[in-house]
Design goal:
Largest sheet: 7 strands, mixed
Structural class: alpha/beta
CATH class of the largest domain: Alpha Beta
Order of helices and strands: EHEEHHEHEEEHEHEHEEHEHEE
Number of helices: 9
Radius of gyration: 19 Å
Oligomer: single chain
Shape: globular
Distance between the termini: 44 Å
CATH superfamily of the largest domain: Vaccinia Virus protein VP39
CATH topology of the largest domain: Rossmann fold
Number of domains: 2
Mean pLDDT: 85
CATH architecture of the largest domain: 3-Layer(aba) Sandwich
């Protein structure tokens, strides 16, 4: 499969400017349709020019012009960026991930790519993941927020659900943390479901996770824990369906939400009969937790 690599190189000045620039750019790229963003600076393997940060995305050729139009519309973010375009193939994309994707800990979970080995410490839960063709390697702040929430939640659920499962990392994390629990994971993208299945087999939890491309309305709840790492425009209309699937005393964790876009999501889930339990922010992204 052919992909187009787009590299956005942005001038920065000082550490605070780097943080602000990266956060704004990452948010804009994800909103425009990027499934993931690689950051390059003076300390990465592939370095950005001095005084700059380069953010790299891979886009299907047919989607490139629409993606660039979205970025041009974000004039306050676009600024003085230098955009470089290069045709790549799918093998190069995966090789790039392998060079940059190392074992990383989020809460009690450690995500280890399939080509690495890792000896866990006491209390650590290893997730053996291959990013494959789907979003959700743990590198994005929205995924990290969900993993930290799963690490801390004080429940012993019998059932869990992962909506928009991507690589399956959150469903697998739930299954690994609660060895007697079973769950469902769904994504509208068949490739994502295939990757989730491969990762579930690799982590020996495939027998406890039902994977599908079905609609949310087909979920076989109720569930004690529901995870949904999706954009607000998807989360908001799903509020009544997800709320109806949450068991009494259960928790629903919503991520994929920019901080400034959180208020309508809170309102939608409150209107669906849930109460806010808490929230957590990371790199401009917010996780919302609700209970019944």
């Amino acid at each position: 499969m052919q992909l187009v690599e787009l590299a956005f190189t942005v001038p920065v000045a000082g550490a605070d400017a780097v943080d602000d620039s990266v956060s704004s750019w990452t948010a804009a790229l994800i909103e425009a349709g990027a499934g993931g963003v690689e950051e390059r600076d003076a300390g990465t393997l592939d370095k950005a020019p001095p005084g700059t940060v380069t953010l790299v995305v891979w886009i299907e050729p047919a989607m490139v012009e629409a993606f660039l139009d979205e970025m041009r519309a974000a004039e306050s973010v676009l600024g003085e960026a230098l955009v470089a375009r290069r045709d790549r193939d799918d093998d190069e994309w995966r090789d790039a991930w392998k060079r940059h994707f190392k074992a990383r800990a989020f809460g009690r979970f450690v995500i280890v790519p399939s080509w690495e080995t890792y000896a866990p410490s006491d209390g650590e839960i290893v997730l053996d993941m291959d990013p494959g063709r789907a979003f959700g390697t743990g590198g994005h702040a929205s995924t990290q927020l969900c993993l930290m929430a799963l690490s801390e939640v004080e429940l012993a659920p019998g059932r869990f659900a992962d909506i928009g499962c991507g690589s399956g990392v959150l469903a697998i994390a739930a299954a690994r943390r609660w060895p007697s629990a079973t769950g469902e994971a769904m994504d509208l993208d068949p490739d994502a479901v295939d990757v989730s299945h491969e990762n579930a087999v690799r982590n020996r939890v495939d027998g406890r996770i039902r994977l599908s491309t079905d609609a949310v309305e087909t979920l076989r709840g109720p569930f004690d824990v529901i995870l949904a790492n999706i954009q607000p425009e998807v989360l908001i209309p799903l509020a009544p369906s997800l709320a109806s699937q949450l068991a009494a005393g259960g928790r629903i964790f919503l991520s994929g939400i920019l901080v400034e876009a959180a208020a309508p999501v809170v309102a939608a889930y409150a209107a669906a009969g849930l109460f806010a339990v808490g929230e957590r922010d990371l790199d401009g992204w917010r996780l919302l937790a609700f209970g019944r």
